[in-house]
Amino acid sequence: MLTRLSTFLRFYLDNDPEKKVRLYDELKALMLYLEIEKTRFDHRLSIKFHVEAKAGFLLVPSLLLQALVENSIKFAIAQMSSGGVIEISAKCINNLLHLEVADNGPDGNSSKVASPEHSLYSEYKGVGIQNIIDRLNVLYPGNHDFSISRNLPRGYKANITIPMEEM
Known about the structure:
Blueprint: H1 2-14, E1 20-22, H2 23-41, E2 45-51, E3 59-61, H3 66-75, E4 84-93, E5 96-103, H4 127-139, E6 145-150, E7 156-163
Parallel strand pairs: 2-4
Antiparallel strand pairs: 1-3, 4-5, 5-7, 6-7
Helix pairs in contact: 1-2
């Protein structure tokens, strides 16, 4: 676990959050973090990846998915006694990269979609989420989408859509 933690911290310190990395490298760093959390949550946490091969070579903002996964662990997995699942997916549609982080955690009271324009959004707005919004606005002004919604039948999901960008 200490080796994983030191490797993750090295990646975190070596990567500028304003830079872009291949999704494959972003997912490798995320796996280091998730392996640490799996040590903490053991059987309560299961991870599933659904990543199209082409998507892995596209550029994304460094550490973009980190805050979303942390939220799933904090607000879903940590609240469950067993059976917690986080699913991370990436697919290419119409020259756009669609990223999703979903969990099967406890539900809130609303089935509405949360977006920056919607008042429900304030319920989900923390430092990590605000950081994602700010970074997307700077890197893809007027050319991205971010939303949080219920993940049926249980939990929440966050979706990010950005232009496909190759190295």
